[in-house]
Amino acid sequence: MNYTGITYDSRKVQPGDIFVAIPGAKQDGADFIPQAIANGAKLIVAEKEVPVPPGVEFKKVASARLALAELACEFYGYPSRKLKVIGITGTNGKTTTAYLICSILEKAGYKVGLIGTIDSNLTTPESSNLQRMLAEMVEQGVTHCVMEVSSHALAQERVHGIEFAVAVFTNLTHDHLDYHKNMDEYLKTKLKLFRQIAANGVAIINIDDPHGKDFVEAVQGEVITYGVTQAKHELRSTRQNEFDTKVTDIAVKPEMMMLKINSIELRTPLIGMYNVYNIAAAFQCGLALGISQRTIKEGIEALKNVPGRGERVNCGQPFAVIVDFAHSPDSLQKLLETYRPLTKGKLILVFGCPGERDRTKRPIMGRIAAELADYVIVTTDDPHYENPQGIIEEIVSGFSNDKCQMTNVKLRYEPIIDRKTAIEKALSLAKAGDTVLIAGRGHEKYQDFAGQRVAIDDREVVRERLNAINH
Question: What single DSSP character describes residue 164?
Fold first, then answer.
């Protein structure tokens, strides 16, 4: 390629670049072709005919996103072929599983790259950025790349052209239905990852998930399953004897969890059944990559925390404070179910839902909060251009008195739009033996209000408030 770079952002075009005009939900990249040309673009790629001046090439394509991915692969020299790429998809657990696999690989002596939610505005970057990042890893001597693969990325062809050595499926639950419209479409999108496995690659699938069978059947090559229920699954696993992991002796304590996999004892600060599944997935991935069980154990135990995932904030207070990314019905329920039996006093929850996203999950999450928490403060997440009060009202509409009576919980709640105030109120209510769960944003450091970014880190708000109280 006789071009200097490739981009879909006209503002970033440099002389000699390829500009790919991607049509979006709110803006059409074709509208910015004049700006791209003014900045020196040498080749324009678009889905519709556009006049260009002499000296500028033009190519019409059926799919600009597919073209961007294919051009980026070629421009950067197909870097995924020079790495072992591990892709992880699922509604929940992608980040923690990715961190666990990275820790295992590092213990095994490999140089590892990580692409995911915590280090990027997008869980999975756009294809041109993604291929550039992979190429940089190759230059730096990285041998393995662990990547979170979102459903949006799969739908938008961001990972097209990447050859995955390992593809991991964690679970599939209600989320992102504003984008995918229904669960069937969501499932079909997730399955796309398992059609991009390299010829000698392997799929690692949570067979306890109700959709696990769909993923097994979609894979043409090697399949390894994992689970916890010990149920017999009449599904193929091409290395079943070696990879038939048995998870036993699970004991969850407030700050530590013990379990055994294949009789190997593991101790980890990552607690809850959802983390048992994350650990089992990482364990299988380690085995698939030829790593010894002893090294896998060392890697799992070396990971002390994942930013914003069940992250405990301790400033000497007599109650527990946990900041978590849980932002779907399933993840919120599992978070509350984990800490309910570990809490001697009240379980206090602070959470909200983002604007301009799946509205159907708001009352569902409200109902879950009502069933499992003693006190709920409903606040903002990222309202975007939606009315924060309206979002809160949709969440609260899911509170069910009947459910509360069934679980012997006398629900108390209050709406507080300002998230910082909401967190501070929850901390002021907490007494010795209580647990405060702050859910939905985890590691994130900004909120979006009508396009304006407002700085807020839930963990820092907690620290500032607790330190002020202690002094």
Answer: E
Nearest to 159 by CA among 118, 198, 204: 198
| C-alpha distance from residue 452 to each of 165, 184, 238, 419, 448 (Å) | 40, 34, 51, 15, 5
pLDDT at residue number 395: 96
Q: How do the domains of the chain map onto residue ranges?
A: 5-74, 77-302, 311-470
Helices 458-470 and 419-429, interaxial angle, to 10°? 40
At the fourth CATH level, the homologous superfamily of domain 77-302 is Mur-like, catalytic domain (3.40.1190.10)
121, two tokens: 């505005």
Superfamily, domain 311-470: Mur ligase, C-terminal domain (3.90.190.20)
| Per-residue model confidence (pLDDT) at position 246 | 81
In whole angstroms, how far apart are CA 466 and each of 36, 98, 211, 313, 442? 50, 31, 43, 10, 18
| DSSP track, 196-260 | SEEEEEEEEEETTSTTHHHHHHH-SSEEEEE-SS-----S--TTHHHH---EEEEEE-SS-EEEE
Alpha carbon distance 463, 467 (integer Å): 6
Side-chain half-sphere of 332: how many Cα atoms within 13 Å?
28
Length of the chain equals 471
Do 124 and 115 contact (CB within 8 A), yes or no?
yes
Q: What is the pLDDT of residues 190-241, one digit of tens each?
A: 899 998 898 889 999 999 999 999 999 889 889 999 988 754 444 445 544 4
Of residues 459, 382, 370, 379, the one with CA closest to residue 425: 379
In 149-212, beta strands by DSSP E: 164-169, 197-206
The CATH T-level fold of domain 5-74 is 3.40.1390
Q: Which three-class secondary structure state does DSSP give residue 64? A: helix
Identity at 343, one-letter amino acid code? T
